[in-house]
Amino acid sequence: MLMRTDPFREIDRIAEQFFGTNTRPAVMHLDAYRDGDFFYAAFDLPGVDPDSIECTVERNVLTVRAERRRPAGDGVELVAAERPMGLFTRQLFLGDTLDTDKLEAGYEAGVLTLRIPVAERAKPRRVEVTVTGSGQRQIKS
Question: Could you report the per-residue pLDDT of 17-33, keeping only the tens digit for each?
Fold first, then answer.
């Protein structure tokens, strides 16, 4: 049998009230970065069944939902329960510069990675200036 003495248990209990609980996790950790013409968002979701992951985009709001469940069955006896379980939800507000119609998602090694291309209209482009015979300049794009 596993025995554990934890003098900081009361501090943990108070922190769970503010930051989340085992059944209601407070945070889904995220890294977000841009690499060239793509924006990436990587969410830590270790131990999550890929079938429970749901990504939706409505207007420019990306919502990620995932659920981690405890092992269940007739012979399962819970000895320690420290990993957060339950439904995780995170929302990101995406700028107009991203093409959410071409969003791609992949899940590997407990990490959900979203790849969103930067919209063509947001990419830098060269503006050519031409000179007309009258001395006025015309701008072409």
Answer: 555 555 555 568 899 99
